[in-house]
Design brief:
mainly alpha; globular; single chain
């Protein structure tokens, strides 16, 4: 291959991945705009017109669960989680992009009825499906060795969490090499960087020029850890690891329960339970980033035991929703639970003092996500979104320790 052809191919590759990112950013913004509009209609506008309807959350969630169950039986088991999406691409070489409308519908419905899940699972399926369509139908893309599932997941996580480094490291950290080794690590990171930059760029442009569609996880106030905080860190890491294993264990339990429940019935049960809990504890609903903002300002009003109880209940409801059919992602809900647990433990060992809460929340969250993701660098990049940068080392250390323990335990 002569030099001119090589340069031309590199230019085409850069342009192609930039287009992938741009399209992903537009689709992502439209997805969140539609979700927010429908959520506002169901939970604000309709109650505003009809007035207080007794057990409104129970009615909405039950009806929503029934509709989702019927549609999943007719349209397919969507949306799939990140691991399932990437596994499908590895196994078949593509993703069923002909079912993209089904994926969109089944990804939006759980979110608008207040299911305790995040949007990342549905969005990854949609973006990967679009990437695979391009790979199968565009002549240049057919010759490319790009792993479209990883590009799709990197762009989705980068745009959703406003963190390109999180999306990139999540796609590549600790991953086995692709079967096709023609792309070097440098080339892969370039592809991820260009696609995520263009995705975040167009998403930000639409958000600033039309309307903001995602608040993201809130930022915590600056904290100055003391010697007592560093001593307590061992307890925080242990609690975060325990919460991570609690998440995985409850996930397995609900998965086994779901296998014994027929289609439609599972979604209906999940809707009833979600709605019943939401009537008395609405903070359990939705993915958790908005609720976390409220909790940050008001957490001192809660008893430590209540914070710990909310953390555990949120995980149970999230896994119930995902496994029984009200599907979505788990990253935001897991972060919410970990922050609640961190606050609760902090208020227990430092009663009457809120100065230690942010450090506790950061360490517990890092340890919990370390168990779940097993990618300490990606976890650290993600938590830059909300925790002070001076905690960088302690966050990474907590994530690394929990990742090590999690891997040793699962071996």
């Amino acid at each position: 291959m002569n030099k001119k052809v090589k340069i031309l191919n590199e230019i085409k590759l850069i342009a192609f991945v930039a287009i992938i990112g741009t399209v992903a950013g537009v689709v992502f913004w439209l997805f969140l705009w539609m979700t927010n509009t429908l959520t506002e209609l169901i939970w604000q506008k309709i109650p505003g017109v009809t007035g207080n309807i007794p057990y409104y959350a129970l009615i909405v969630c039950t009806l929503g669960g029934l509709i989702i169950g019927i549609l999943r039986k007719l349209l397919g088991d969507y949306p799939q989680g990140m691991t399932e999406v990437i596994g499908t691409v590895k196994k078949t070489g593509t993703y069923p992009y002909k079912k993209i409308l089904s994926i969109i519908v089944l990804a939006v419905l759980p979110l608008i009825i207040g299911s305790s899940v995040g949007p990342e699972a549905g969005m990854i399926g949609i973006i990967v499906a679009l990437c695979c369509w391009a790979g199968d139908n565009i002549r240049f893309a057919k010759k490319s060795t790009i792993n479209y599932s990883k590009v799709g997941s990197a762009v989705t996580l980068s745009v959703l969490f406003h963190s390109p480094l999180f999306g990139i490291f999540h796609a590549e950290e600790n991953e086995e090499e692709d079967d096709d080794t023609s792309l070097t690590k440098t080339s892969k990171f370039m592809i991820y960087a260009i696609s995520t930059a263009s995705g975040i760029g167009v998403y930000s442009l639409l958000s600033n020029s039309i309307c903001e569609v995602s608040e993201g996880f809130p930022s915590f106030e600056a904290a100055l850890p003391t010697g007592y905080d560093y001593l307590a860190m061992f307890l925080y890491i242990a609690c975060g690891i325990a919460l991570g294993f609690f998440f995985m264990k409850s996930e397995l339990i609900f998965e086994r329960i779901a296998e014994k429940i027929p289609p439609i019935v599972g979604e209906l049960i999940a809707g009833i339970v979600l709605g019943a809990v939401a009537c008395f504890l609405p903070v359990i609903q939705f993915s958790g980033e908005t609720q976390m903002g409220v909790l940050i300002s008001d957490y001192a009003k809660y008893a430590p035991s209540a914070m710990i109880g909310i953390a555990l209940l949120k995980i149970l409801i999230t896994n119930m929703c995902i496994q029984l059919g009200l599907k979505g992602g788990h990253i935001f809900p897991l972060m919410f639970s970990a922050v609640c647990l961190g606050y609760g433990i902090s208020l227990m060992i430092f009663p009457g003092s809120s100065a230690h809460a942010v450090f506790a929340a950061a360490i517990v969250t890092a340890a919990t996500l370390g168990v779940s993701m097993k990618k300490p660098i990606a976890v650290t990049m993600l938590l830059f979104l909300c925790f002070p940068i001076r905690m960088f080392f302690w966050i990474f250390l907590s994530a690394a320790v929990s990742t090590f323990i999690s891997k040793k335990t699962s071996d």
